[in-house]
User: What shape does this take?
Amino acid sequence: HTRTHTSYTHARADTPHAAPHTTHTHRAAHAPMDTQHILMKACDFGDVKVTKAMLDSNADVDRVANGWTALKVASERGHVGCVVALLEANANVDLEPLGYAPRPRTTALKLASFEGMADCVRTLIEANATIDTEGDTALTLASSGGHVECAVELLKARADINVLDEAGWTPL
Assistant: This one.
């Protein structure tokens, strides 16, 4: 016995958990989904209950998929409840995966700053995220996007206003 359904995702195409609109055929007794995949999806959609359940099921809190961790996904999306759950599970707040092409938004703090997710920025700072001091910093990214609340949080955490970005500009 099989059934067919179409699954749709609203995830961005540049994240590892994104999938195009596809049609799947499932058998009645199909294998359960990988806990890691479910963790990434839960963080993408802000489902704290499922995030905690996957962490309780021993999903690797710092596993990297195409340069993304669950913490980076939740931070970029602004899902502070998921961020808190991941930090409580000892997620590495400063993880920058090896082998990932250098980009200006590689840490969870930079992603949250770039997207204007002030609650996540605040939470990551409280978890002792490193305030970067060279290149395109979290403060530069927040300022360039007009995310005043994020910039204020970073300034309270002593982000350096004199750091020059790659184009020679300061954040403010």
